[in-house]
Amino acid sequence: CLPVSPEVPLDICLTAPWTYIRMHRGEFGTGYSDAELSIWATRISSFLDRGVDVYVYFNNDPEGYAIRDGKCLQALLSDRIHQSKIL
Predict the structure, then answer these.
(1) Is residue 73 a contact partner of residue 40, using CB atoms and an 8 Å limit?
(2) Looking at the 3D structure of the chain, how many domains does it have?
């Protein structure tokens, strides 16, 4: 699991053929910037290149940033994923 939060130091260490990325910005009342999501799209693409299955969860918040952030990341990765794999 890769927790992504301002309160947790990021340590990208993949130890399995899959990874679960927990995006925890929602509780702070703000979503991720397009630049931050672009960085994560690049990281996720590199994981996919290595044959790693990637699951991403965005923490929801009262303003609904998780929905916007998820759609933005999906668009950034649209050439890498198939609709059937998007939940």
Answers:
(1) yes
(2) 1
The Cα-based distances of 7 to 10, 29, 70 in angstroms read: 9, 14, 21
Give every CB contact of residue 44 below 8 A, 6+ residues apart in sequence: 21, 54, 56, 73, 77, 80
CA geometry: angle 27, 68, 53, nearest 5 deg: 90
- CA distances to 21, 30, 62 from 59, in Å: 11, 11, 10
Kindly report the backbone phi and psi dihedral angles of residue 6, in degrees, each rounded to the nearest multiple of 5, phi listed first.
-60, -20
Residue 46 within any structural domain of the chain: yes
pLDDT in tens, the chain (87 residues): 777 776 777 778 788 899 999 888 655 667 888 999 999 999 999 999 999 999 999 887 778 888 899 999 999 999 887 654 555
> Domain range for residue 62?
29-87
